[in-house]
Amino acid sequence: MSLLEIRNLDVRHGLLQAVRGVDLSVEKGETIALVGANGAGKTTLLRAIAGAHLPAGGNVRFGGTDITLVPSHSRVGLGIALVPEGRRLFSQMTVEENLILARSAGRKGPWTLDRVFEAFPNLVPRRKAKAGNLSGGEQQATAIGRALMTNPEILLLDEVSLGLSPLAVDRVYASLDTLIHGGTTIVLVEQDLRRAMRVADRIVCMLEGKIVLEGKRGEITREQVSEAYFGLGIAKGRLSA
Amino acid sequence: MMIWVNQIVQGILLGGYYAVIACGLSFMFSVMRMINLAHGSLAIVAAFALYVLADQYGFNPFSALILVLPAMAVLGWVLQRTILERSQRGGMLVPILSTFGLSIVLDNLLFEQFGADTRSLAPFIDELSYDSWTITDDLYIGKLAALTFVAAVVILGGLQLFLTRTQLGRSIRATAEDPDTVGLIGINAKRVNAAAAAIALVTVGIAGAFLGMRATFDAYAGGPQLIFAFEAAVIGGAGSLWGTLIGGIVLGVAQSLGAQISPQGFLITGHIVFLAVLFGRLHLDTIGTKFRKTVRRSA
């Protein structure tokens, strides 16, 4: 049984249908990269998994239980954490307060305040600084740390490299590496195809709300992904690995 | 000379009272982004509850608070879940209308129950209502006024500590800043807001107690109280807790000095200071920009 199973999921923003009939299973310990052009529905799909946006149809099962209509705060308690696009830190509060807040879910596990500061040593001197005054890289580290503080079983990362310098992106991915190899289940949205294909076990490409290509790393080529990305290879049908 | 010192001292103490009645309003605005126009009426509800307990059941108003404050907290929770939360979904203005409606309902229910007689809690607190310490021949400090001021500092300080040191307090601040994102870290925004409303109404209950002890009230006394609370909150910077104390003091001092200048100056000076601060706030930015531009041009 998969950790996360999405069946025939439809998500709407008013009249706009952002996610159309998506099926996706995520196995425990897997890292999946979600790629696709702007507006392909990647963020909406992640938000629907996290419960921040309730779907119009289909269902989401997590660890065997149906969570389609469970609100986001309860999903955190079940072990789903989302690092939202744009980081969404509480800018008026300190780094430490941002992290401590994530204890509210009440999930016990390996991630504590000390452990987060160990994983992101660049945050240690900024412990008491307001989150709004941090650099982009520090903010992203705080956002990831905040999600980890909920001790998730699955971590959803939405465009963690957005707005960061290449150097900061490297740092963020260096710290993610430990998570990826440590067996945390991760679904990440990444615009940088090269990077996505390097870190993920499986690549899922979305176009106009649908999954158009899905394949294990090594089994699909960059060219195939690029074609799917721009909708050039639709005639060839969905390639499943 | 001494008379002015006296007026300033009395004004500061009066400011403590205004801070007590404004703090619930300011807390609700800063935490839930909601202007609660039923604030004054709810304080009167608490005052009447204390009055009934004191008059019919022989409670001392201070010990009656042990019953009234939890009741106010429950009332806050219920109000949030039944009226405020729903109206807030309709945008910024709907809560103003719905709380205005609520205040009319409360005022008239009180009027129906208690009639037009004015009442006071002063008879139930014995000499505390009029006793004072003599500082000099011209300067007396009322014990109740001093107690009110201390209460203001304790309530505002306590709220400040609560917001920074406890998990619920931090959750309240985070929910105020970004109600959508708190869900993603496991915080139930609805429950947090209901708890915040409960806390706000506890402070409203305390405000009702001091209002009843220092003066008289009737069913329609909520409106004027709301005006003073509103003015203190705006002068101090709406949503800032210590600012509320400063706002209350500025308002109180302005009113006392105004009363010394002219017997009718009490209210008018308070309103003038309030309007001056309000317009100053609105135009300070433009004045500042203009000033900087002029400096740059001449440089």
TrEMBL record, chain A:
<keyword id="KW-0029">Amino-acid transport</keyword>
<dbReference type="InterPro" id="IPR003439">
    <property type="entry name" value="ABC_transporter-like_ATP-bd"/>
</dbReference>
<keyword id="KW-0547">Nucleotide-binding</keyword>
<protein>
    <submittedName>
        <fullName>Amino acid/amide ABC transporter ATP-binding protein 2, HAAT family (TC 3.A.1.4.-)</fullName>
    </submittedName>
</protein>
<dbReference type="GO" id="GO:0015658">
    <property type="term" value="F:branched-chain amino acid transmembrane transporter activity"/>
</dbReference>
<keyword id="KW-0067">ATP-binding</keyword>
<feature type="domain" description="ABC transporter">
    <location>
        <begin position="4"/>
        <end position="233"/>
    </location>
</feature>
<dbReference type="InterPro" id="IPR003593">
    <property type="entry name" value="AAA+_ATPase"/>
</dbReference>
<dbReference type="GO" id="GO:0005524">
    <property type="term" value="F:ATP binding"/>
</dbReference>
<dbReference type="GO" id="GO:0015807">
    <property type="term" value="P:L-amino acid transport"/>
</dbReference>
<dbReference type="InterPro" id="IPR052156">
    <property type="entry name" value="BCAA_Transport_ATP-bd_LivF"/>
</dbReference>
<dbReference type="GO" id="GO:0016887">
    <property type="term" value="F:ATP hydrolysis activity"/>
</dbReference>
<dbReference type="InterPro" id="IPR027417">
    <property type="entry name" value="P-loop_NTPase"/>
</dbReference>
<comment type="similarity">
    <text>Belongs to the ABC transporter superfamily.</text>
</comment>
<dbReference type="Pfam" id="PF00005">
    <property type="entry name" value="ABC_tran"/>
</dbReference>
<keyword id="KW-0813">Transport</keyword>
UniProtKB/TrEMBL annotation, chain B:
<feature type="transmembrane region" description="Helical">
    <location>
        <begin position="266"/>
        <end position="284"/>
    </location>
</feature>
<feature type="transmembrane region" description="Helical">
    <location>
        <begin position="140"/>
        <end position="163"/>
    </location>
</feature>
<dbReference type="InterPro" id="IPR001851">
    <property type="entry name" value="ABC_transp_permease"/>
</dbReference>
<keyword id="KW-0813">Transport</keyword>
<keyword id="KW-1133">Transmembrane helix</keyword>
<dbReference type="GO" id="GO:0022857">
    <property type="term" value="F:transmembrane transporter activity"/>
</dbReference>
<dbReference type="Pfam" id="PF02653">
    <property type="entry name" value="BPD_transp_2"/>
</dbReference>
<feature type="transmembrane region" description="Helical">
    <location>
        <begin position="12"/>
        <end position="30"/>
    </location>
</feature>
<feature type="transmembrane region" description="Helical">
    <location>
        <begin position="60"/>
        <end position="79"/>
    </location>
</feature>
<keyword id="KW-1003">Cell membrane</keyword>
<keyword id="KW-0029">Amino-acid transport</keyword>
<keyword id="KW-0812">Transmembrane</keyword>
<dbReference type="GO" id="GO:0005886">
    <property type="term" value="C:plasma membrane"/>
</dbReference>
<feature type="transmembrane region" description="Helical">
    <location>
        <begin position="227"/>
        <end position="254"/>
    </location>
</feature>
<feature type="transmembrane region" description="Helical">
    <location>
        <begin position="91"/>
        <end position="111"/>
    </location>
</feature>
<feature type="transmembrane region" description="Helical">
    <location>
        <begin position="194"/>
        <end position="215"/>
    </location>
</feature>
<dbReference type="InterPro" id="IPR052157">
    <property type="entry name" value="BCAA_transport_permease"/>
</dbReference>
<comment type="similarity">
    <text>Belongs to the binding-protein-dependent transport system permease family. LivHM subfamily.</text>
</comment>
<dbReference type="GO" id="GO:0006865">
    <property type="term" value="P:amino acid transport"/>
</dbReference>
<keyword id="KW-0472">Membrane</keyword>
<protein>
    <submittedName>
        <fullName>Branched-chain amino acid transport system permease protein</fullName>
    </submittedName>
</protein>
